[in-house]
């Protein structure tokens, strides 16, 4: 496995030795070790059989070379490189978290960490009174009473436009809608794997966690069943606020290290910070990054 870049705070010499030792163990246990490539690496293919060169590859003097960093993927005869830090490419059914960037005529534009913005139509949401009805000009005038710029929301990708430039988002379920009393985090989309469950309620902490397929992650106070477009003005307790911040920093550390972000790994990192008496602010420091790497190496060794 090539040394794909991770983002770390400055390490002391002893920390660097520990970190490199743990990373070497992780690489030796990784199932994708031989598939990770950097620019100009040669991809092994059977030239006696027909193959199709896909994104991130180029055929030069009979050798199939990579043009980007990432992981080599083989799908039947197609060979391509999945770039690790590419922007989100939407697929129908994806659960996404986004931020409103514009209130337009009969729709909102939503930032999705994609090459194009998402579109949430007024006709596709639950109105504050929870009544489904034909939208009128009055409803359009009142759109800012529902969502405004910088509001965060959760939705599902319904379809893409014919030119592929925009995604239409569906939010007709009470699982989706406006999010408040929390923080929005951004990780590389490849760190969030497609799953049957992207909504998590961490009952012991009173926290909702939404892992958006687009790399936007929401950590907030648990929302009781109510209209998703109505904001609850009650203050967050100090304990819940601390839990939100600690979970958020756990996700930041995992993202910096390039580890897949799942509920299990997040909670392991959260619990590690408490067990090691790491202050919330110190979680983003070099020592905790090394501790998390060592913990993940030991975890993978046990599972191997």
From TrEMBL:
Quick one: where is this thing mainly located? Answer: nucleus
**GO MF annotations, alphabetized:** RNA binding
Subcellular location per the Swiss-Prot or TrEMBL entry: Nucleus
Which Gene Ontology BP annotations are present? CUT catabolic process; exonucleolytic trimming to generate mature 3'-end of 5.8S rRNA from tricistronic rRNA transcript (SSU-rRNA, 5.8S rRNA, LSU-rRNA); nuclear polyadenylation-dependent rRNA catabolic process; poly(A)-dependent snoRNA 3'-end processing; TRAMP-dependent tRNA surveillance pathway; U4 snRNA 3'-end processing
TM ranges: none
- Pfam families referenced in this protein's UniProt entry, alphabetically: KH_6, S1_RRP4
InterPro entries the record matches = Exosome_RNA_bind1/RRP40/RRP4 (IPR026699), KH_dom_type_1 (IPR004088), S1_RRP4 (IPR048565)
Domain K Homology intervals: 182-223
One GO cellular component term, please give it.
cytoplasmic exosome (RNase complex)
Q: Where is the RRP4 S1 domain?
A: 87-157
Specify the protein name.
K Homology domain type 1 superfamily
Can you name the source organism?
Arabidopsis thaliana x Arabidopsis arenosa
């Amino acid at each position: 496995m090539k040394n794909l870049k991770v983002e770390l705070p400055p390490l002391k010499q002893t920390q660097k030795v520990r970190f490199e030792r743990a990373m070497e163990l992780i690489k030796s246990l990784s199932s994708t070790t031989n598939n990770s490539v950097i620019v100009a690496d040669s991809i092994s293919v059977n030239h006696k059989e027909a193959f199709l060169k896909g994104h991130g590859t180029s055929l030069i003097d009979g050798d199939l070379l990579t043009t980007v960093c990432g992981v080599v993927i083989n799908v039947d005869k197609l060979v391509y490189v999945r770039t690790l830090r590419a922007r989100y490419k939407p697929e129908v059914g994806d659960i996404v978290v986004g931020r409103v960037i514009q209130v337009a005529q009969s729709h909102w534009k939503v930032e999705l960490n994609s090459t194009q913005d998402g579109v949430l139509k007024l006709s596709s949401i639950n109105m504050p009174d929870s009544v489904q009805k034909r939208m009128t000009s009055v409803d359009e005038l009142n759109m800012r009473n529902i969502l405004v710029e910088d509001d965060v929301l959760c939705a599902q990708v319904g379809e893409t436009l014919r030119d592929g430039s925009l995604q239409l988002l569906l939010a007709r379920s009470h699982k989706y809608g406006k999010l408040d009393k929390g923080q929005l985090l951004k990780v590389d989309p490849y760190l969030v794997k497609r799953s049957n469950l992207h909504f998590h309620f961490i009952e012991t902490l009173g926290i909702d966690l939404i892992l958006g397929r687009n790399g936007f992650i929401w950590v907030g106070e648990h929302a009781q069943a109510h209209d998703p477009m109505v904001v609850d003005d009650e203050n967050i307790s100090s304990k819940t606020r601390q839990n939100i911040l600690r979970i958020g920093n756990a996700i930041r550390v995992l993202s910096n290290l390039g580890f897949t972000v799942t509920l299990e790994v997040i909670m392991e990192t959260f619990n590690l910070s408490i067990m090691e008496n790491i202050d919330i602010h110190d979680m983003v420091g070099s020592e905790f990054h090394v501790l998390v790497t060592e913990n993940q190496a030991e975890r993978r060794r046990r599972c191997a």
